[in-house]
Amino acid sequence: MEMANKQRKVLRHLKFTRLCTWLLSFFAILPSRQSFNYGEALSKSLLYFESQRSGRLPYNQRVVWRYHSGLTDGLEQGVDLVGGYYDAGDNVKFGLPMAFTITMLSWSVIEYSEQISGAGEYEHALEAIKWGTDYFIKAHTHPHVLWAEVGDGDTDHYCWQRPEDMTTSRHAYKVDENNPGSDIAGETAAAMAAASIVFRKTNPHYSHLLLHHAEQLFEFGDKYRGKYDESVKVAKGHYTSVSGYMDELLLILPIPFSFLNSFDNLNFFILSLQLLAGKSHRKHQHILNEYRSRAEYYLCACLNKNNVTNVQRTPGGLLYIRQWNNMQYVSTAAFLLTTYSDHLQASNQRLQCDQGTLDPSDIFKFAKSQVDYILGYNPMGMSYLVGYGAKYPARVHHRGASIESYKEQKDFIGCMQGYDIGYSRQGPNPNVLTGALVGGPDMKDQFRDERENYMQTEACTYNTATLVGVFAKLHWLEKDYLSANPSLFAYRR
Ligand SMILES: *[C@@H]1O[C@H](CO)[C@@H](O)[C@H](O)[C@H]1NC(C)=O
After folding, report:
1. Is the model's pLDDT at 190 over the cut of 70?
2. 0.70 exceeded by the pTM?
3. Pocket of ligand 1, candidates 296, 308, 354, 357: which has the most ligand atoms within 8 Å of its Cβ, to mutate?
């Protein structure tokens, strides 16, 4: 109980200091050269998750070109695996990136619930999370069994079909005691634990259920150690577990399970960097310190402030890691820079890098520059968020979007037929994949809007998931500041 009081105090303090950050950082970003409608970007980003839905679509589905699909997923193995999300431009349900997507969406809602509510998008954000967690609950059929994937990249990529027409293998793959997958178990546990915080107030029963699954999954991942791509061989080459399973286990290591029952404390675990400031866990302090120094090294690298290793930037100023789906790194960095700047501001700290010390507002300003690049402030004058702005990718590498909607054209389109009808289509996709963040431009800011150019024109759920909170924060800043200073409307237009 004493702990809960402390938490409330800390939270109150956080809220006040954050208000100051917002005001301060708004002054810092005022001279921006182009202003964007972040509220619209936020609304669109959440629509994207509806396009990626698998399973039976609900009555309130807003993306109307999609229809029910994958209704027999899991049937072959006698489990109900209907639902969840298609990962990218294909029709495979990959559990690991799906869990990461839900973790990041939940984290965004935890951090920026007020801002998301303020934009009128809170319900939509919760629906996006629940579509994933409902599926994880189904996929976790036994304390030590987690269904990790439905379909496989090789047979799926051989065909070009709308999800509504799929004739590809829907074989499901699992991890269990004999075929462990600590990474996927850990990441799924993290996603469910984070989502349990999200639903604590609006749906306490569901929140407890998620926590229960998270505990079991964590225990399973911890006890039966192994990498999931060793167990689920079809994942290899698509989502190879490069760093092994320690990252995912570490993500949840700092919480003993008795501690999990206190949701406010769990909040701090998810925001494990903030946990450091909270001094809640001396026992794991060394792990957290290690985490912190690695995280700060990474942030300094993004800000070009390390002596040795920094992240490359394009001439237009975009962080550049690699040519295939570079935007995933940009959007994740924008999220981490934003939340970390909030954390520093709230605890009255600055970021120490080799080449100087940075204020929270400097860090946030850089995060904003990355978001503005995404939305159109770039040499191509192109928004990489599909459906946003005047110019955006029209030939997104996406099976469903590139073929007429099933609702308008119900004739079955076969595996190879789709290549003629959709993939090789000269014109734009008939369906706009609104809110998708595509792979993005090359190291010289160049972008070729062609369907076969999957390195640049394919989008993934985890690209967009990390933007939700950042859009909400930016929207909130503008709205709040402008309503307090109406005279600035003239200046800004
Ligand atoms: C980084 O470089 C500066 C200037 O060359 C030097 O003063 C500083 O000690 C270096 N820091 C580290 C951590 O190597």
Report:
1. yes
2. yes
3. 354
